[in-house]
Amino acid sequence: MKTPLYNKHVAAGGRIVDFAGWEMPVQYSGILAEHQAVREKVGVFDISHMGEFFVRGAGAVAWLDSLLTNRVAKLGNGEAQYSLMLNDRGGVIDDLIVYRLSADEFLLVVNAAKIDEDAAWLTSHLVEGIVFENRSADFAALAVQGPESDRVFKALFDADMPAERNRVQAVTGGYVVTTGYTGESGFEWIVPAPEAEAAWDKVVAAGALPCGLGARDTLRLEMCYPLNGSDLSPEQTPLEAGLGFFVDLEKSYPGREALADQKKSGLPAKLCAIRATEKSPPLRPHYPVWVGGELVSETTSGALSPSLGYGIAMAYLPLHASAPGQEVEIEVRGKKFRACVQKKPFYQKH
Questions:
Q1: What's the DSSP call for residue 265?
Q2: Which of 35, 44, 235, 273 is least surrounded, with the fewest CB atoms within 10 Å of its CB?
Q3: Which fold has domain 268-342?
């Protein structure tokens, strides 16, 4: 599949790869330059492959609260929150952002690889009075990220960028939201699909450097933001993933009992941040992790951190080996390299 911005990526020299069935740019000028642009200036990503669901009805709050881990009722109009939908075992089906557009209307932005599965799961739980619409094909979306994103916002909308994160506001034909996935200030512009190319041109003309999936991955990994399908899966719970802040155990939803039992009995493992302590080849997912000569896990994500200059990774480690400072080894092509567990996130602004 192609997003409405595919031709723009090709024209700009983007190197196209398959991502969750979508033909997406992994880089343009290079991952290092694009990563640095977002950390120091401003970049723009095509996130049109992600899904947009709309939920409305007088019982929308109660319905969403019966299905998602975070407490939707806490949201005021124009506010957003991170949440998760779980299977009955407490494993992660998907992580998503919930935006409250009005008292009885919500926008859910879900991961590209999960659009069909999420839509089927939500509609299987529909109750009378709730209207659910999968309008993913109707919209494109651009993520503008970096310290100078406020300048781009001003050029686009002749207004100041919202100072607070986790906000949503309607603009002509679409929405501006401030959630982000890089650790930098910025905004996402959700626009009708036919207007995507014009929106992209305006953002680039305002000074944002086109960025691909490669830089998006290194940026989010430096912040220890989990990626569904890699760091999050149906086999691990949000508690194991360190996402307990987004889990409300005082309400009922699928998987809640499994989480309550796990919290009571203790976690079998924790998703940990691991940094290389000696020079190594770039770290990647699915590399074996050793502790004291014992194979205990494998990396879920990994990269060479452009900001920090050393290898970083995440992995689910048994509790006895999960404390910051714990020495581990990561096996790369048959050779083990020294590393250690560190406190999240890897990257912190000074």
A1: H
A2: 235
A3: Elongation Factor Tu (Ef-tu); domain 3 (2.40.30)
